[in-house]
């Protein structure tokens, strides 16, 4: 049985390399590729793949929001997140959005192929310190909060985020405070800083 895969990553070299490696696996077939979140959603709706490999940080529509939309629009499509961001807050938000797997981009090809097979078979591929998706998750961030979180992860400052979203800087700060509350961050030392996600494994 061939597992049909759609791969979404905005970096052409990464995308092409992964397509080549996955296509070499006899039971895996890459049936589509996407360069941003909207294209990933469209490909998933049109091609109805078994598995969607989804980069967390993508333009136009980030991976968290894309996963949430795919969960509602494409029944039976299982999402695996690919990211260099392994911090718990991002992992938990992807899981809450519907992802069944989460791999660091430094993982080996054999790990990626094994994750695709395991998730396709109904299992999960998640950090051992994270509770399985069946357990209640901390409050899911709103769509706008997920957007702000993704921009922060990409290293954007409050003023830059405000300009992109066309809102006031104070509004971005409000979203940041809401995220801190929902993610269980209390002190100033635990604030979400650009390019550095908070580590929340002990707070699950």
Core attributes:
single chain; 204 residues; alpha/beta; 2 domains; 5-stranded parallel β-sheet; 8 helices; 44% helix
Structure description:
The chain is α/β, with parallel strands linked by helices. It has two domains: 3-120, Rossmann fold (3-Layer(aba) Sandwich), CATH 3.40.50; 143-203, Arc Repressor Mutant, subunit A (Orthogonal Bundle). Helices cover 44% and strands 15% of the residues. The protein is built from eight helices and five strands. It has helices at residues 12-23, 37-47, 63-73, 88-97, 109-120, 143-153, 158-165, 169-182; strands at 3-8, 28-34, 51-55, 78-83, 99-104. It has a five-stranded parallel β-sheet, sandwiched between helices. The longest helix is centred in the C-terminal third of the chain and has 14 residues, at 169-182. The radius of gyration is 17 Å and the shape is globular.
Task: Indicate the percent of residues in helices.
Answer: 40-55%
Q: Give helix and strand order, one letter per element, not per position.
A: EHEHEHEHEHHHH
The total of helices stands at: 8
**Count of folded domains:** 2
The CATH superfamily of the largest domain is known as Response regulator
CATH topology type of the largest domain: Rossmann fold
- What is the CATH-assigned architecture of the largest domain? 3-Layer(aba) Sandwich
Structural class: alpha/beta
Question: Over all CA atoms, what is the radius of gyration?
Answer: 17 Å
Report the uncertain regions: 134-139, 194-204
What is the name of the CATH class of the largest domain? Alpha Beta
Q: Give the biggest sheet.
A: 5 strands, parallel
Shape summary: globular
């Amino acid at each position: 049985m061939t597992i049909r895969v759609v791969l979404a990553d905005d970096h052409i070299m990464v995308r092409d390399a992964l397509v080549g490696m996955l296509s070499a696996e006899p039971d895996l077939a890459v049936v589509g590729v996407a360069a941003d979140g909207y294209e990933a959603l469209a490909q998933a709706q049109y091609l109805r793949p078994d598995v969607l490999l989804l980069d967390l940080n993508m333009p136009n529509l980030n991976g968290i929001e894309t996963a949430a939309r795919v969960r509602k629009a494409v029944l039976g499509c299982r999402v695996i997140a690919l990211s260099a961001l392994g911090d718990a807050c991002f992992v938990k938000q992807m899981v809450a959005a519907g992802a069944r797997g989460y791999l660091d981009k430094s993982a080996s090809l054999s790990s990626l192929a094994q994750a695709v097979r395991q998730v396709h078979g109904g299992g999960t591929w998640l950090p051992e310190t994270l509770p399985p998706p069946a357990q209640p998750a901390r409050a899911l961030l709103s769509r706008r909060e997920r957007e702000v979180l993704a921009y922060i992860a990409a290293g954007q400052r409050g003023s830059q985020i405000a300009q992109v979203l066309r809102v006031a800087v104070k509004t971005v700060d409000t979203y940041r405070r809401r995220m801190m509350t929902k993610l269980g961050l209390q002190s100033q030392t635990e604030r979400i800083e650009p390019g550095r996600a908070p580590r929340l494994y002990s707070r699950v």
